[in-house]
Amino acid sequence: MTLREYLTSKTFFGQLFLAFIITIAVGFLLLQYLDFSTNHGEEIAVPNLAKMSTEQAEEVLDDADLDYVVLDTVDFNPEFPKFSVVQQDPAPGEKVKSDRKIYLKINSGGYSTIRMPELVEKTLRNAESTLQSAGLTLGSLTYKPYIGKDMVLEVKCNGKTVKAGEKILKGSKIDLVLGDGSGGFEDEEDTQEPIDSLP
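That's the PASTA domain-containing protein sequence above. Prediction below.
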């Protein structure tokens, strides 16, 4: 039998059909195995762990067949209990497979201390930017006579004067005493007697 006759014979087409059926069957079995080995369709919604202690979070994640890793302790956030979960990844509600690790960031136990930055003789705008960068909050503003308008003259915390370099709690409210822009040459001229009145 020649090659041309074989390629047009019933035997060749029968074997070709058989090979096609075997390929389909192997592909189907492989997909079934992958579905089984990867728990296809058995996804778990990540629970919301915000404000939970690590012990509470561990218990909830164990019940959901999930694991966790504590990445870091972040600066104290007063809106969350001490040592509670502040951030998590993946986010609550996301679908994951069982045994997936949930990465947690934990609130610290309180404000850390920092050194008061130098604010005296800075403008209000610069002082406000410096306070924000240092993790401090701008409090009340009071003014007193000084030629430099909005120039920082004094820095206070809880009613006490604070100097640059002193240790204070991060997150503290800082009150500023500023110059009101008075005390310039015009004010000095106003205090002089008119020339006509001089003897």
